[in-house]
Amino acid sequence: MPPPLRFEIVAEDGDARVARLSTPHGVVETPAFMPVATFGAVRGVSPDELRALGAEILLSNTYHLHERPGEEVIARAGGLHGFTGWQGPWLTDSGGYQVTSLADRARIDEEGVAFRSPLDGTLRLLTPERAVAIQEALGSDVAMVLDECRPHAEADGSAARSAMERTLRWAERARRAHRLERQALFGIVQGGLSPALRRESARATVSLGFDGYAHGGLGLGEEPARREALLAEAAAELPREAPRYAMGIGRPSDLLAAVARGVDLFDCVLPTRNGRHGLLFTRSGILALRNARFRDDLRPIEEACDCPACTRHSRAYLRHLLHAGEALGSRLASLHNLRAYLRLLEEARAAVRERRLAALHEEVAALAEVRL
User: Fold this and answer.
1) Which of 13, 15, 93, 109 is catalytic?
2) N or C: which end of the chain has fewer CB within 10 A?
3) Is 141 one of the catalytic residues?
4) CA Rg, the chain, in Å?
5) What is the mean pLDDT of the chain?
6) Final residue of a domain: which of 267, 296, 331?
């Protein structure tokens, strides 16, 4: 049987690369942004709209789908593809971050993570093997191993080493448990804020032989320069020919910095979450659309944007919808932000091909904190 993924690098600019990631449900041009469909849907956005915005792959969450409606329901509907109507590639997170962040509800030991469901208080146990079995039932194109992700306050010294080593042991168990040949399985690099641990984790994870590799435990408030250094440390140990995924990293300038260090896949809730709060990403800065000065502004959010919000509606109208609590306002803002992120990665791919990624990053970083 052919491998579940093919990863073909077609252009490079330093450590950055453009590639074609071929899956059983379609090809993804990387570097790529994956809209977050936590419960099997990007809030308020249909599959057809996502495709029209330029999305090629979506991310959903194993923990939340296990809680409701349950992986058995989804499996009976034909997996995520049949259940949701999105026929392109799916990546499922293992749920490790969600359950280990339930500090008052979870107990982590060698077996896995035991926790009380926030929905009904039921005692659940998520093991490396169970995380794999759930994702196989979901039928995603890419599954993730269960990892121990600790907040940075707990991720120094012995705590970081302990979590990193446990993640490796869990990764080995997940690798042995994985049976679905058409589904790729990614390992996860941990190591807190320690460059040495990141290198050690990457080297050991590669030795287990995964289809791709993720940088975990970042994007949690660390300084950008430190994050970039940690990405570089791990990347030095990862195989060039395998895709790399930076989990949860999401500000536009941070995406481009990670692309420059060889990252291929991204996900983050910022585009939709910020959109619902009236914060719109543009190439001139962040538009705080709830501000009173936009009450009579008949311009689009962004003149050059081709999203449904910008081509049909004004800033004044979207501001009115947001203040009125109309769902359409949040929906249109989300559509714009998703298009802005997807367009940024399109620009990044073009910049890598033309060997001008550094210039694009400099331009975007200069506007990162500008409020319009």
Assistant:
1) 93
2) N
3) no
4) 20
5) 94
6) 267
